[in-house]
Amino acid sequence: MSTRDADTQLELLQGTLDLLILQTLALGQAHGHAIARSIEQRSDDVLQVGHGSLYPALQRLLKLGLVVAVDGISENNRKARFYRLTAKGRKKLFSETSKWQKLSNAIALILAPVAKENP
Question: Distance between alpha carbon 79 and the CA centroid of its chain, in Å?
């Protein structure tokens, strides 16, 4: 996963894509293309999820029992694999979201402008 702008392309923290996939699936089942599109849209097109990152992450989440998959037909009448969050996945999403918020708050504190002290 990367950011859209190649000039400012950033590598995101390891595990971030898994968290974003779990959050996307908390809204309901989706196939891979819909998951990638949702992440892009919800990030105002800042984050781009390539198939080379998305499908290995989905396989990892399947192996961990955090999501399940069923085959079906997409909105375009194409065969697709739909992924859904499990109860274990929902617990993981909750715990990882809490960790992420703590980390985000800590970084925001460090990046906040420091008030100048008057001499």
Answer: 24
pLDDT along the chain (119 residues), means of 10: 54 81 96 95 91 93 97 90 97 94 93 77
Cα-Cα-Cα-Cα torsion 76, 77, 83, 87, nearest 10 degrees, comes to: 110
Q: For residues 31 and 79, what is the distance between their CA atoms, to the nearest angstrom?
A: 10
SS3 at position 94: helix
CB atoms within 10 A of CB 21: 29
Tally the C-alpha atoms within 13 A of residue 100's C-alpha that lie toward its C-beta.
16
What are the percentages of helix, strand and coil residues in the chain, rounded to 5?
A: 55, 15, 30
**Do residues 89 and 67 lie in contact, with contact meaning Cβ atoms separated by under 8 Å?**
yes
Report the alpha-carbon distance of residue 80 to residue 105 in Å, rounded: 38
Q: What pTM was computed for the model?
A: 0.82
pLDDT on residue 68:
98
